[in-house]
Specification:
Number of strands: 7
Largest sheet: 5 strands, parallel
CATH class: Alpha Beta
Number of domains: 1
Structural class: alpha/beta
Strand order of the largest sheet: 2-1-3-6-7
Shape: globular
Strand content: 15-25%
CATH topology: Rossmann fold
Number of helices: 7
Helix content: 25-40%
Radius of gyration: 18 Å
CATH superfamily: Flavodoxin domain
């Protein structure tokens, strides 16, 4: 049985293109692999807390010396990390807000990328002292954009602060394989947008097939 952590981060519950993509993906996965487990977290509707000075102090305090207050501050982080640890596949649906992540998604990353939990820190490694504690996970990014041309070589490549950030941070989620499906042209609302949606839906079964091959899942 494969476990998938599904995260929706759009602030919209209605008319959300990224949520619709995720729904299509999960429905198709369920149809092919009905015994697989999904862990669902809607951070668009219930955003994780932002980290604070007290939260940081709790993280760096030795576990055996943490106060009840510190343990309480880290309870959500511990739960989110547990969900991440259980999953082989991480499915994130997200819109592009102001060329980057929604605040809720950034808050989720800040809660789960944590020293001695998802990465270790050792200066004996030289200039690259951080090392992830997990590996072998697959990330599927389902993205909606108002504009277009954010791909490598695209006219807005340098304005894309969403996927490069997620790709960099996902190393510390244990991700070593990534897939991306993107809908563009939303603000234009023309035929290009319609075609982009159609192309995204057509890409979903292809990505599922690729991932299934990695985890040796039967058809």
């Amino acid at each position: 049985m494969t476990t998938i952590l599904h995260i929706d981060s759009s602030a919209r519950k209605q008319r959300s293109i990224s949520r619709a993509l995720a729904k299509k993906f999960t429905n198709q996965w369920h149809a092919k692999y009905p015994t697989d487990k999904f862990i669902y977290r809607d951070i668009g509707s219930a955003p994780p807390n932002f980290i604070s000075e007290k939260w940081i102090a709790a993280v760096f305090a030795p576990e055996e010396k943490r106060t009840d207050e510190q343990n309480s501050l880290l309870a959500l982080s511990d739960m989110l990390i547990k969900e991440l640890t259980e999953a082989e596949i991480i499915l994130i649906s997200t819109p592009m807000y102001n060329y980057g992540m929604p605040a809720s998604l950034k808050a989720w990353f800040d809660q789960v990328i944590r020293v001695d939990k998802t990465f270790t820190f050792d200066l004996s490694r030289g200039d690259f002292p951080l090392e992830p504690t997990m590996s072998g996970k697959t990330l599927v990014l389902l993205i909606s954009c108002g504009e277009f041309g954010f791909e490598v070589g695209g006219v807005r490549e340098e304005m894309n602060h969403l996927t490069p950030h997620i790709r960099s941070a996902s190393k510390y989620l244990g991700v070593d394989e990534q897939h991306e499906i993107r809908v563009e042209y939303q603000e234009f609302g023309d035929q290009r947008h319609t075609q982009s949606i159609d192309n995204a839906y057509l890409a979903i079964p292809k990505v599922i097939k690729q991932i299934a091959g990695k985890y040796c899942l039967g058809a």
